[in-house]
Amino acid sequence: MRGHDDRVGRLSADWSVPPTRLPAGDPAGSVGPGGGPPVPHEEVTMSEYDDRLARLSDNQRALLDRWLAEDPAGGAGPLRPDGRPPRTEAERILAGVWEEVLETGGIGADDDYFALGGDSVHAIVIVAKARQAGLALTAHDLFEARTLAAVARRAAPAGPAEPVPDAGGGAVRYPLTPMQQGMLYHSAGGSTPGAYVVQVCCRLTGDLDVAAFRTAWQAVLSANPALAVSFHWSDGSPPEQVVDPDARVTVDTADWRDRTPAERDDAFARFLDTDRAAGFDLARAPLMRLTLFREGEHAYRCVWTHHHLVLDGWSQQLVLRDVLDCYMRLRAGRGAEPPARPSFTGHLRRLERQDGIDEEFWRDHLGGLPAPSRVAGPGCRDGRVVAVRRAEHRHRVSAATGRELTGFCRRHGLTPAAVLHGGWAVLLSLHCGQDDVVFGTTLSGRPEDLPGVTECVGLFINTLPLRVRCGEDTDVVDWLHGVQSDLAALWDHAHVPLSRVERGLGLGRGGGLFDSIMVVENFPAAVADGHEAGGLRVTEPRALVDEGYPLVLEATTGDRPVLHARYDPHRLAGGRVQALLAAFDDYLRAVTADPARPLPDLRAVLARDHARRDGAARGRRRAADRTRLTLARRRPATTTEGETP
User: Fold this and answer.
1) Which of 71, 180, 448, 457 could pair with 127 in a Cys bridge, judged by C-beta atoms 3.0 to 4.6 Å apart?
2) pTM over 0.70
3) Which are the contacts of 280, defined by CB distance < 8 A and separation ≥ 6?
4) CA angle at 525 for the pair 519 and 531, rounded to the nearest 5°
5) Are residues 179 and 289 in the same domain?
6) pLDDT tens, residue by residue, 249-263
């Protein structure tokens, strides 16, 4: 019937009221939810109704699932008919913030943060918006108290905002963030060409005004001092970043309209290699450039190359959004007018006052670790030195598994990030043969109490070691709650450089604690595939980057999570990486299918599947080797001059 059903569905104009299908004999609009008054709605065919439902956000879909669970007939009433409405001033303020950030409505005092789809990124935004509304709380409050009423009881009146220093008009010097310190150390050594060079690639379709495009980029650069920095260091003094108010961005162009599609693809791949290897002079701002390749009358490829020292992924999305908004205004005959974003210097000054390391925490977290966890084969002496060109594999989780993961997290008070980190811990433990493993996790690093932190551009992230014990005799859900707690505990230490953790505790000799990183991406304002601005359509956006580790696992959450592996092909076989991604799928299905499963049983199932898949891969390699040997035997022998004797 799908696509051919001409019955009518009712789509509410207010998502605090559930969509319903009209019961037989019910004239449109005569009945509201629970038999109450009618609500604003739109009547559409069932095929359009289904299409609309397919385009709902994760939180809207979860809200619908809850309505249907309460009333399968579709005539559901309020979100929690038996729940308490927010009554205190703090509850009402928080309810408004939750509804805005979590994209839902009708939140009651007893509603659970995780059941509504909350995670660590939402927590940062909620804490910031609550502070603007006069309430002070922390992300830990959301994770620990969970219900709206309990979180409201923890909230306190927000004090005056900490003044944020301005960058001023001339060249200004600032310290480095922990992540910048590590990146600078590896970038300045020169042993890894292209390390930490980020290439954001996309296609642009439309009537591109190159001059307006260039002006938009320059306007955003000039409005964000964090984009106009260079880096300087000398023996005996700490490195500094210096803001250059006169920095100018370059936009190079090339016309490829006379080339075939295959020629363009080959040339583009060569350009990416050359561009990455060229890197940047870190002492000269700005550490960014753009290149446009025209492939048709209204078709371009765009590459925004910048150094990771300057931006993290969250900030990258803010910059792209600002550039496209400025371009749209310029095309409409107005000024660029980029938004006045909060200064990154407030974060840098705060870091200067946090120049300490909680050695007791790190001893508890990492003490007694039997050995570093290695996924890659031997390479250069420094475990982080990798090949210039990274290999990559992507694996998209099925829609069914994605839905099961979302429901599993909401039911059990977990974030997708905790489940994904647990997955890599189990797979790493099987790969290394260790029950006790450690790997890097990338934290957002955005201090929730810093004014305007969600809208600030700069490098906030930090990568720190996450230790996970996979040999515990407990069920999967309890174990994942432990992983989630350990992840949350790292938030308070996001200002500490990894090098200080390793050095301070005498760890990491011979290449560091780990050689793999897990990154869970969930940006609140991402420029999505298909974004349009000023007559331009942005498609196929992707970011290429070498983070300096043999294996980086990047996961995006949502209806169909994507697992993206970037790795050093000199130290990891592509087949092994693909097998790890497939095993991740096995893990997600097993966890969501039986949450009460004991952790040892889960490991046994995954180990059996891994052995089966590994055996099949070895069989394919042996067959390929036999084929190559047969071909070699049949090939005529040649002399040293290359002639058949």
Assistant:
1) 448
2) yes
3) 197, 287, 307
4) 110
5) yes
6) 999 999 999 999 999
